[in-house]
Specification:
alpha+beta, 7-stranded mixed sheet, 7 helices, globular
């Protein structure tokens, strides 16, 4: 999912691919973290269900190992928001959706990051992918992060002074969650959020 000057990291695709297997698995099954799968496997007496949960947890951990190879624990745990002062702004993204003349609705957030020496768009994309894969394993973020919302898509692009992470979802509830976590990130980073 590479476009000129942007790297797309599809969170929904990563979670779905990592936890997929049987097409009949529920959405809640596919959105479970590896820790959730481990707990569910211990709690059930159904051997087929135990195997499905164990396999899903194993795939999520394998995906995390592959995505995080060569990255620091801080990058894995906190992703691109490892330093609160690196976030320079957060703005709500609005779109008309499927109705070209409909009202603008919040669909996500854009998070602006200050560039660090040596940071590239591709490397930041790796940090994002690792953080998302790690969240799929542990099931909770160490800090507020719009990256941890299931069914959200993330795009990384360059700006003149840093980077822009665009986090959005076509699902209305997921989009609301992205905006809320964007607000929490802005508050934690002491930056303003543009409505």
């Amino acid at each position: 999912m590479i476009a000129d000057k942007s790297i797309g990291v599809a969170f929904a695709m990563a979670v779905t691919a990592a936890a997929s297997g049987c097409a009949t698995q529920s959405a809640s099954f596919r959105q479970m973290s590896a820790a959730d799968h481990d707990a569910a496997a211990r709690a059930t007496t159904d051997s087929a269900l135990t195997e499905a949960h164990t396999e899903a947890a194993r795939r999520l951990r394998d995906d995390e190992r592959a995505a995080c190879y060569g990255l620091t624990d801080a990058d894995r745990d906190l992703g691109p928001f490892v330093r609160a002062d690196s976030v320079t702004g957060v703005e709500v993204i609005r779109d008309r959706g499927v109705f070209p003349k409909g009202p603008l609705q919040p669909v996500g957030v854009a998070v602006y990051l200050r560039a660090d020496s040596g940071m590239t768009q591709q490397w930041l994309g790796r940090v994002v992918a690792c953080n998302v894969a790690h969240f799929a394993v542990v099931g909770q973020a160490a800090r507020p992060s719009p990256l941890t919302v299931p069914d959200a898509e993330v795009t990384v692009s360059s700006t003149p002074v840093g980077f822009r992470l665009t986090i959005r979802s076509r699902d209305t509830d997921a989009a609301r969650a992205v905006v809320e976590r964007g607000r929490e990130l802005a508050t934690a980073s002491s930056t303003t959020m543009t409505p």
